[in-house]
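User: Before I run my own analysis I want an independent prediction to cross-check against. Here's the chain; please return only the structure tokens and, at the end, one sentence I can use as a sanity check.
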Amino acid sequence: MAGNVKIPKVFIAVALKASSYFMVSRSVRLFSLTSVVSLVAGFSALMVVLVRAQLPASAQASNEPEVVCRMKLDGTVKGPEDGKRLIEEAKQAVGTQNYELAASKLSEARQVFNQLSSSYQQLAASYSSGNVDNRTADSCRKTALEMAQMRDEASYQLALVYRAQNKPESAIPLLVQITRSQQPTQELGQKAYQLLRELGYVNSP
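Assistant: Structure tokens:
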């Protein structure tokens, strides 16, 4: 995330406390959750489609079309629409107080978005290696961040479901992951921290 943002001590305290109490893995950074598609397997199941979008006014002068990094899925890997559908199904389950089903749907949505985020990050690294195609690398990196944001939003909704089920031990690690992934100034990070306070995990304002 942005390197110049001064992270409040209270966010640091949350991360340290989580490491000792819940043994939250150090691998919960933005793109490093486990169980992702390997790069080789990913290329066999995914194909990058570089969409030449309509030129914005600023790009017309340079005659360089915008590059949009998107994956063409062959059915073996779920895409963003699948993750969004799972979240909608979870909302419907919450509406009927079927929290077990909602938790299952949201957990699956988290996995979908995390896998996509990791795959796009791998593509970005491949294109940026040796300056192969920096514009495509930047586009893939941007998409990876978008997928990670969706993952964190699904994580927050899942934490809410766990709270409704009176399962703070399941909700708190998710919230800690969000505070690590999001900048302290971002709304989702603030909401996650507020929920940690409501659960009694932290008591600092």
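Sanity check: The beta strands are 46-52, 67-73.
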